Amino acid sequence: MAAKRGTKTSMKNMEKELLCPVCQEMYKQPLVLPCTHNVCQACAREVLGQQGYVGHGGDPSSEPTSPASTPSTRSPRLSRRTLPKPDRLDRLLKSGFGTYPGRKRGALHPQVIMFPCPACQGDVELGERGLAGLFRNLTLERVVERYRQSVSVGGAILCQLCKPPPLEATKGCTECRATFCNECFKLFHPWGTQKAQHEPTLPTLSFRPKGLMCPDHKEEVTHYCKTCQRLVCQLCRVRRTHSGHKITPVLSAYQALKDKLTKSLTYILGNQDTVQTQICELEETVRHTEVSGQQAKEEVSQLVRGLGAVLEERRASLLQAIEECQQERLARLSAQIQEHRSLLDGSGLVGYAQEVLKETDQPCFVQAAKQLHNRIARATEALQMFRPAASSSFRHCQLDVGREMKLLTELNFLRVPEAPVIDTQRTFAYDQIFLCWRLPPHSPPAWHYTIEFRRTDVPAQPGPTRWQRREEVRGTSALLENPDTGSVYVLRVRGCNKAGYGEYSEDVHLHTPPAPVLHFFLDGRWGTSRERLAISKDQRAVRSVPGLPLLLAAERLLTGCHLSVDVVLGDVAVTQGRSYWACAVDPASYLVKVGVGLESKLQESFQGAPDVISPRYDPDSGHDSGAEDATVEASPPFAFLTIGMGKILLGAGASSNAGLTGRDGPAASCTVPLPPRLGICLDYERGRVSFLDAVSFRGLLECPLDCSGPVCPAFCFIGGGAVQLQEPVGTKPERKVTIGGFAKLD
Q1: What is the DSSP letter of 741?
Q2: d(Cα 480, Cα 729) in Å, to the nearest integer?
Q3: Which residues share a beta bridge with 124?
Q4: What pLDDT score was predicted for residue 410?
Q5: In 3D, which of 30, 74, 57, 40 has the Cα closest to residue 176?
Q6: Which of 77, 252, 594, 603 is least buried, going by the fewest C-beta atoms within 10 A?
Q7: Is the pLDDT of residue 745 over 80?
Q8: What are the residue boundaries of the B box-type domain, all occurrences included (predicted)?
């Protein structure tokens, strides 16, 4: 009883899962859209009608028409219609002739029907057949029927064939898709006809076929196409639509999907405490959201009121200035009016002047008329050059509020910075990790940034992934010091401003060098033919300028012309441990050798300017990638990688090491493209040298080396060429010539 009660409770709680997103009522003959959402068949027809599609709302179930709807149009021939044979259908489809349901003959551009799915808010393509090409969700129909029975929705089921008032239905017929009372069932299933063989069922409001039928061929589906993610029948398999697709039996798809669903459901049911905890957390978040939202409203209202108060204060100040200017002008104009009124006949100054002219006593007249004459002269001049004492215009009091109106119009909430974009061209790892990024064009500015990084080649610890952080980084670049060698780091960045932290950038993975980085400079005092070697001022780049011997060699190639090898060494020597350095070789270089060698052997071999054309020159005096002697067991004193014209020459032993093989095994010799930077890793104790692609750290060549004495970096040039040492990421290091206890004397 408790189990039944629990089942009824769960059925009642899932009602929202059984509502059609269009009519918000329980599903009635639901159809499965290509986006996997469901919709009632009647609702789908109505939606297509509103979209202007007419004649594409066919019944996907394709069962016989119910006698309750069209009893006069039934024909026994409908049930006896046969489908074409599969082999004939296959020949027609492959030959390109014939049509299929929903396709008009001669239609070059069939109409593709789009259905606006109300669940995912997007347009779903239904194909040319519209609703007729969709499957009915019979499982959902059964769930809806069980739900109706559990909650007693709908009451008694009435007979669909009775004359009003209908009686209560006692039987149902799946073939006729109708409910009957006893009398109507006998009437529509007379003895001696094919309908008499229909098996009665319990009355129901939803009639379903016995099995899921293919909407294209009206046959039971037997397989599942994993490529199209669609159920297919036997005839669908011979269509060109599914040629080359991965098709499995329905039983296999059923078992696999059922196992996945069961496993997921078991996990959810086994973590009910976690679900309840997350629900409590979400409810707490809802409460905080309500409180924070109210606080945000109050803050915005307060700020807007503050803006209003500032505007009101400024308005009063501006109006006061206009009022003062207006009063000043009115006073000046009033005084000017009074002066002009005194010039009228018989009033003011004119009347006084007329009375003074009546004076006959000459000394008295002169005394009074002197001052009067000056006043009359000024009045006359003002009369002749009349101009108002003040302007009536207040144009200088107009306000330009365009900028302020724009600011007020654009007044909006602060936005957090968008996710930064890491510049992969400028971000790299050497002695330190240099990380460079930028914000998207329309992103709000960031006050500072937070960098997070971690190693990916360490065993995972239980719990959440732990990141190392650097807070409040100014600018758009940063240095991460002392990274572990031979590791892979993942880094990400996010910005911060007054609004808070933004989203993280995409993760970028960087490989660190396999050994500690060796810092050195090029020593121009060592080597030969210094007049042809141009070393930069910072002693980190060298260029070989081809001289007269190379021109003569090109002109008289068969006359035994002497051609010299130009050599430059590093100003450090290694006697222990592992060291790594990188350099870039100009792709236009004619022939360059990059590597290491014993300091004593380098001085002996190259101090005398060897001749590469003369037969006395031995190209195998050292170990290089272009010429190897596999029979010599002793380690060579040199190890060089040969680069020429943008290619790297690898010998027979290096081909397999670089992953390059031919049809019959490793190639005798081969070339690979020159990477942007080359890396050299020296293991002094093991007596091994590895040449790497310094960008991807892919191995190019590994060879032995005689480490019985100090080992120096060396660069050889034949013809024109250039080499640039990798600059240290951090500050320029001091020039150190001592490594492992060995010091080179300057």
Answers
A1: T
A2: 10
A3: 115
A4: 84
A5: 74
A6: 77
A7: no
A8: 209-250
